[in-house]
Amino acid sequence: MVRPMRSIFGLVLIGTLLQMQALASTRLLLVGGGKRPEQALRRFLAWSGESASRILIIGWPSTIPGDYVRSLSAELSAVGANRILVSETAPVSESGKEEFLSQLAQATGVFFTGGDQNRAMAAIEAWDLKSSLRKRFEAGIPFAGTSAGTALMAEAMITGKEYPRTAPGLGLFTPAVIDMHFLKRNREPRLIAAMADAGMHFGIGVDEDGAVAIEDSLRAEVLGTQHVMFYESIGGRTMSFELEGGDRFDLKGWRSR
Hints:
Blueprint: H1 2-23, E1 27-31, H2 38-48, E2 54-58, H3 65-78, E3 83-87, H4 94-106, E4 109-112, H5 117-126, H6 130-138, E5 143-146, H7 148-151, E6 156-158, E7 166-168, E8 176-180, H8 188-198, E9 202-206, E10 210-215, E11 219-224, E12 228-234, E13 237-243, E14 248-250, E15 255-256
Parallel strand pairs: 1-5, 2-3, 2-4, 4-5, 8-9
Antiparallel strand pairs: 1-10, 6-7, 9-12, 10-11, 11-14, 12-13, 14-15
């Protein structure tokens, strides 16, 4: 009877170690706005636990969060999400903050809608939630954003204003400034100016209907049919790399592969 117990214990231990290894990975999905590629939503769902996922949609960037939340919920449900948690608006009381933290603790994936990244970050900072969100991300919970929800993922968040061009973001991705609706709205000059203002050497521009999946801040893969631009600016010289669906990018060496 002892040997089977040891075998079961060994399997449990191995399972626990594998789970801990999985939790060590950070995963981030950046959608450029417009139509969210089905491939990107399926990748996020896979990261979040497939049919066992509990995805928290945060509508704080928007002044009309209900529309964003309903649309995103329907799209996630269509690719197999069974349980969706919703936080349409930022807390207005301590009890509201505690309710949100309870949702965050339950979530196996977190998705920020579009709207205004400055609006969302103001709420996050006002209720001292930045650390709680980052801890969940660092524990292995995948995060995603679309449009403004993508911009706020950076350490140096593009504001969309003439000045200041950047402000502190959520800080889930530290190497680069991130812009969205990129080629559709001709935002290359805006991104390069924001990189300079923030003293950042790297930038990422995600076009509408496009997405990029990032793992461990080291590896990026473009999902969908639209392009993603990667920029490097050093010594007054700016280089760009234009990637399309299926292409991969080495974020450590900042080179396509």
